[in-house]
């Protein structure tokens, strides 16, 4: 009986296989499979986006509640000079908060970190913040038309402490690798007032949409995400053709569908990056850092570019996030370092005053083996470790603070210096980052742009410069685009700057020419030479 069944089954399978092949069913099956993949992926990504949006909104609220609780515990509830000073410091160390103030029973601002005196704002909606007894959440429009989330902590005598955070900071800003760039995201308060939205609400029938809603259990925020099915289909267009081809091959070889895993498909971006790395397509560009007092070159920041065989240059924002999540960032970073050693080693090594900065993803600092790798990478190069700067961005959350601090200390023992990048834009808070014991802070373009026009930003930069000098740290201003900014920065006591006003990131050959040209300028005693005339375009 058993052998009969086995025999029958085998024959049966062959018969079915032949029938199926003749009928072209593999293609049908493939399409069915592809449609399943799209459904699963669309649903997962949509839910993932919603969950991350809820987590972000919660994180913002937790941060603000924490700060206001601390202020309340310190007795800040009226408008003495002490209170204003404390509020100023709190705003300064908590980047998302733009303003903290004491408000009266009629919602009027009595004083704030900007000083005494009232401010006008239109209240769009107001409700109690779920799960937090003394707190209310308002959406307000400030004098300059910005929408803000205001969290108010009720105190005594009808007064309250209030903090303002731009509504945009409650929305996911940067799409993660593989995430749908075209998802529509709506974030609402517990009572349904709109905090903000990203993208355009799709007008397709809901059959053609992936929809996810998530509610914050902590504060009641509601997030809705919608992704048109067409978006995901479009992303899989190539896969469909490849599928056709592979299906044909299967028919010929009578192979199974199991080889059709997406990881092997040439469409897989991680595999594509791995090949590009092996082929040496990730190349360093160098953006000069200039001493704005003497006009001399202080060094350069290395910025990676993906130079495709057809000559296109892909900027790092496109591939670094995926490199970070896939673990490729480590080999990519060290490959870049080796390329810099090979290309610029001689020229930079023979000028010990020049410093070369590398962007170092935050996660790399939580593995002590990188200390040895950094040492080994530069061991045979004329570039000394004392010429190397590693930049860690304030945007990357630090996973293991103690370990990160140890790794930083070990790198500093080698002579390497550590910079905090994008100061003022991250969530970590500067005071937290400074506990890492860094040597340099890089002031983000956002502040540089606001200097001279926005008094708050100017004060923040002044405070940063003071702080840096007290802690014996260097300050570099980033994204400097105009000469006026150079003058302002110089007046504020900042010494180093980088930005398009001097030069964009340059390919190696142009940078090396520049270093040599600057030597002769230096010898001529030139003051603030116009680097802009030397090189102005970022081209391959
Ligand atoms: P970043 O470290 O903040 O680099 C500064 C960015 O500002 C660079 O963009 C640079 O081209 C641009 N920039 C410089 N001067 C100006 C200016 O005057 N005006 C304006 N509007 N922009 C200016 P880029 O090269 O596209 O790099 C973007 C980000 O990618 C970098 O931001 C950095 O976070 C990351 N990145 C670049 N290379 C690497 C790398 O090798 N490893 C890692 N982990 N990240 C990298
Ligand atoms: Ca940087
Ligand atoms: Ca930066």
Entry summary:
With 540 residues, this protein is an alpha+beta fold. The chain is built from 16 helices and 21 strands.
CATH architecture field of the largest domain: Alpha-Beta Barrel
CATH superfamily of the largest domain: EAL domain
Q: What value does the Rg take, in angstroms?
A: 28 Å
Number of contiguous helices:
16
Task: Please tally the β strands and state the result.
Answer: 21
**What ions, cofactors and ligands are bound?**
ligand C2E, calcium ion
The rounded distance between the terminal residues' Cα atoms is 73 Å
Whole-number mean pLDDT? 84
CATH class of the largest domain: Alpha Beta
Q: Extract low-pLDDT stretches.
A: 1-8, 254-259, 525-536
Biggest sheet record: 8 strands, mixed, barrel
Q: How does the helix and strand content classify structurally?
A: alpha+beta
| Proportion of beta-strand residues | 15-25%
> In which order are the strands of the major sheet placed?
12-13-15-16-17-18-19-20
Q: What's the CATH topology name of the largest domain?
A: TIM Barrel
Helix content: 40-55%
């Amino acid at each position: 009986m058993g052998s009969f069944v086995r025999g029958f089954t085998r024959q049966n399978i062959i018969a079915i296989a032949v029938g199926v092949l003749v009928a072209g069913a593999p293609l049908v099956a493939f399409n069915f499979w592809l449609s399943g993949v799209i459904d699963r992926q669309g649903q997962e990504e949509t839910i993932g986006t919603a969950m991350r949006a809820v987590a972000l909104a919660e994180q913002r609220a937790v941060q603000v509640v924490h700060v206001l609780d601390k202020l309340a515990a310190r007795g800040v509830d009226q408008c003495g000079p002490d209170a204003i000073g404390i509020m100023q410091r709190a705003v300064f160390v908590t980047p998302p908060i733009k303003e903290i103030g004491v408000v009266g029973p009629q919602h009027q601002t009595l004083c704030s970190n900007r000083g005494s005196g009232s401010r006008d704002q239109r209240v769009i909606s107001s409700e109690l913040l779920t799960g937090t007894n003394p707190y209310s959440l308002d959406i307000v429009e400030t004098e300059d038309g910005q929408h803000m989330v205001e969290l108010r902590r009720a105190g005594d005598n009808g007064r309250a402490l209030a903090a303002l955070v731009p509504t945009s900071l409650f929305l996911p800003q940067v799409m993660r690798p593989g995430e749908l760039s075209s998802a529509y995201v709506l974030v609402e308060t517990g009572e349904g007032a709109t905090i903000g939205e990203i993208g355009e609400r799709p007008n397709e029938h809901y059959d053609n949409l992936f929809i996810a809603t998530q509610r914050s259990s902590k504060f009641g925020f509601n997030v809705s995400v919608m992704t048109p099915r067409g978006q995901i289909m479009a992303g899989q267009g190539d896969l469909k053709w490849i599928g056709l081809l592979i299906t044909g091959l299967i028919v010929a070889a009578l192979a199974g569908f199991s080889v059709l895993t997406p990881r092997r498909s040439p469409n897989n971006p991680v595999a594509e990056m791995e090949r590009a790395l092996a082929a040496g397509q990730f190349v360093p560009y160098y953006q000069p850092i200039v001493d704005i007092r003497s006009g001399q070159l202080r060094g350069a920041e290395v910025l990676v570019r993906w130079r495709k065989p057809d000559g296109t240059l892909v900027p790092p924002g496109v591939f670094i996030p995926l490199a970070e999540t896939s673990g490729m960032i480590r080999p990519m970073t060290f490959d870049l370092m080796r390329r810099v050693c090979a290309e610029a080693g001689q020229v930079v090594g023979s000028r010990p005053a020049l410093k070369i900065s590398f962007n170092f993803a935050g996660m790399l600092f939580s593995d002590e083996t990188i200390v040895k790798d950094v040492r080994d990478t530069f061991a045979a190069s004329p570039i000394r470790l004392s010429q190397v700067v590693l930049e860690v961005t304030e945007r990357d959350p630090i996973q293991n603070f103690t370990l990160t601090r140890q790794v930083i200390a070990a790198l500093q023992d080698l002579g390497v210096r550590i910079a905090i990048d994008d100061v003022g834009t991250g969530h970590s808070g500067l005071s937290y980052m400074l506990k890492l014991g860094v040597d340099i802070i890089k002031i983000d373009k956002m502040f540089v742009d606001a200097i001279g026009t926005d008094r708050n930003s100017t004060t923040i930069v002044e405070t940063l410069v003071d702080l840096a000098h007290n802690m014996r740290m260097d300050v570099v201003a980033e994204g400097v685009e105009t000469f006026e900014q150079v003058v302002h920065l110089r007046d504020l006591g900042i010494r180093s700057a980088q930005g398009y006003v001097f030069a964009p990131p340059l390919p190696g050959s142009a940078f090396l020419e520049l270093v040599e040209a600057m030597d002769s300028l230096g010898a001529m005693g030139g003051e603030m030479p116009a680097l802009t005339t030397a090189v102005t375009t970022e081209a391959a």
